[in-house]
Amino acid sequence: MAKSKKEVKNQLDPKDCTACDSTSQMITKARKDGVILHFDRAADMKACPIGADSACCKNCFMGPCRLNPRDPYKKAGVCGATIDTIMARNFARAVAAGAASHTDHGMAMLELFRDVVNGKVLDYEIKDEFKLERVAKSLDIETEGRTPKEIATDLYKQLESTYTQVDGEIPFTKRVPQGTLDTWRKLGIVPRGAMREIMEMMHRTHMGVDQHYKNITKQASRTALSDGWGGSMVSTEISDILFGTPSPINVGVNMGVLKEDMVNIIIHGHEPNLFESMLVSVNEKTLVESAVAAGAKGINLVGMCCSGAEMMSRHGVPHAGNFSSTEAIMVTGAVDAMAVDIQCIKQGLAAVAQCYDTPLITTNTRAHIEGATHVEFEEHNPSACTDEIVIKAITRFKNRRHEIEIPKAVNDGVQGFSHEYIEYMLGGAFRGGYAPLNENIINGRIRGVAGVVGCTNPRVKQDDSHVKLVKELIKNDVLVLLTGCAQIALAKAGFSVPEAAHYAGPGLQEVCETVGMPPVLGLGSCVDNSRILIAASAMVAQGGLGNSIADLPVAGAAPEYMSEKAIAIGQYFVASGVYTVFGVTFPTIEDTKFHNYLFDGLESEGIGKWDHAIDPIEMAHKMIAHIDKKRKELGIDK
Ligand code: XCC
User: Looking at this predicted complex, what is its ipTM?
Assistant: First the structure.
């Protein structure tokens, strides 16, 4: 049950919780309704300062041991673990958990692909045969004169080794630029298989195993790379093959995509298969008829978070908001069902759903929530689950008894920039010169490229840092690639339209106007960060910008991150050669050996490095300074 509002101390003004007007409006209504949201719980829960600095260890039962972040070398843990070992182990375990999440998601997509290919699953099919061939060719699989089934069977076998291989290099290392791969081989961080790397990471961080922060970090890099160039990349590529490769599409984003006179169903989570089947169910004639019989104009399916971002990119399904809006949207009273699968599903949703009689339906065997209804989603019979979700939503619509208040905002914009589309739009050498993107970087119209990714976090004002950071970057001619909740923040702020080019500096503005593109390109969900890696590899391959990702004038940022997955993503970007800045907080103590190794030492080994800044303008200028450093090293700093 939700607590009454007087039980919450230190409530912030809604305008200080979020830069999203719709969410702010719903926080105000929630307070009127006596409903607690994650903003309130954050205000009520002071973050533990020792944990925030990663100065505690509970990897065995001689502790837990807490060191003093102000004097970190004064004491060691009971086993003698130093602050550097403790911080490195905690960090590495976050990488392992994040990598496990993405790789397990990718493996689920690959298993679905296997069963589609071998005919065991009949409700899905290979939608993009062109992409199937393209991915197969990238892994040296013969495609000439072969049927899609033959190619797909070989592709499955190769990609399965991304997870199960115990020795050797994972298949997508074939896509890594030579200079980057040489560095990985020299450092011993080429991933074998994700299961092996994650297992070894958990082993090494057990009490009394790996107790050198540099060696722990080395395995953290290898584990993270098995996510970025492994599990996540498999997920992106296989989802494109099964469900279609995104290309630019106009979509509405924000809470105004809910419709008072329709049955509103929200899908929130990460695996696109549930959502794909929902699309079929909401168009099922008998279900549409029962919605109409219940007094609705029809069924309105919308997405949230990352599976929402994928469906928005692939099919133009409207998107209602990012992580920090998932509880708040139920306060509209207009959500007739919310179905969830895995990752970023706050347990607090159950209490909020109960306040508004909204069925909260868990669907994945890995993720049940106390207080929610579980209807297992099964690929061999997907409509059994998805039809039931629709029926529950229609029943709730018929019995609606809560006041409805839907914020009006809908921000239309262009989404769906797959790496293939970016290559089509800005790649491909012509007349013997460099590709347009590289050419424009070399001639300085585009200063560099930034990936701005990741979550929202109630410890900072929702969307605010994303928007301020991106605004400053494009003003300085940095082209921005977006994924996940960051992409939704910028869409809501109106940056996903070609007209937003006027926010850009003169060089980037000219490129945007010539191509007809917005100054920010949305690539999809968090696993689609792999599209950024592929785009970066293409930039190296197109020539003129060095021979490794570390040579490129690029930078990455997650200004409002909150999840372990974000740490895994950050580490695979760093290990791939990208300077990466995180906001909010960073789980290390400054001026310790481990901190300095992440923030400095890694770069001297030939890969990228971490940085941290809370202020988004400072963050932007750190990224621009790095981009300028790389331009200088490339000799293109006119
Ligand atoms: Fe989750 Fe993927 Fe973070 Fe958003 S960005 S809060 S991880 S939904 Ni992916």
Answer: 0.96
